[in-house]
Automatic annotation (TrEMBL):
Signal peptide: 1-25
PROSITE patterns found in the cross-reference section: PROKAR_LIPOPROTEIN
Protein name as catalogued: Transmembrane protein
Organism classification: Bacteria, Pseudomonadati, Pseudomonadota, Alphaproteobacteria, Hyphomicrobiales
Keywords assigned by UniProt, alphabetized: Signal
Amino acid sequence: MNFRMMTVAGLVLALAGCTTTSGVARNAVESRWLGKPAGIFFAQFGPPIADVETGDDTVYSWKGGYKTRKIPAEYEKTADGKRGKRISAARTEYLSCSVQLTVSSDYVIRSIRLVGDRKRPNGPSWCEEFLGGAKAE
């Protein structure tokens, strides 16, 4: 029984040490923050809400970037340039961003995963705009 437990523990530790960073950023957040110190991220955007140690790495959960955005109603344009039939009603968006940062023992961000984000049909998502510095169109 002890041998099995030690084997399982060794396997878990070996797998926990196998973090990979592809080096290819999939979005503006990754391109800005991969390889940077986590302290800079938390100093700029606030502390994490939770953390879990996994071997030599720590996975931090962070949420922030709260914003209320008013989206005006959209209307058709008529041939004479006047406002026609309403296409969509005015609405309010409540935006926030949630990410999980995997940070190595030397406090460098090894991966950053978008957990909660608001996608946009054209242009950057809210997390890319807020954390990645991408500009909205």
